[in-house]
């Protein structure tokens, strides 16, 4: 897969059908996943088209992981998740990205791997998405000291 076939690079409707941009971070872009089966689920994509963590320089890797960590912290604080699950798959869309999936004790898929694309999704309306994004962004700005 090259940049021209990659929706993370093209930022086309294939991407916006799946996620909504929350903000740009130093090495990445943070998105709210439209499927909110796991309340607060996000995706964080590296800012350029790389496939594997080992393709990043040490500086890029450190910066990306810092973004991932800050985003996860904000999600945990906002939604009071009991654990954040981190997943990098990318078999089909190889552009380096983490799924950040908050998990809750006793709730959906607690104690097991989350289903990436469940048949039955929890989709929010525009107002609810906007509110969720603003809440994450506010917390992220507190974490980032902005
Ligand atoms: Zn890409």
Molecular structure report:
With 146 residues, the protein is an alpha+beta fold. The chain has a single domain (3-144), classed as HIT family, subunit A. The chain contains four helices and five strands, in the order H-H-E-E-E-H-E-E-H. The chain has helices at residues 7-10, 13-18, 58-79, 126-144, and strands spanning 19-25, 28-33, 42-46, 83-87, 97-103. The chain has a five-stranded antiparallel sheet with strand order 1-2-3-5-4. Strand 1 (19-25) and strand 2 (28-33) form a beta hairpin. Helix 3 crosses helix 4. The radius of gyration is 15 Å and the shape is globular. It starts with 6 loop residues before the first helix and ends with a helix. The relative contact order is 0.19. The model has no long low-confidence stretch (mean pLDDT 95). The chain binds zinc ion (ZN). Residues 3, 6, 8-9, 49, 95 line the site of zinc ion (ZN).
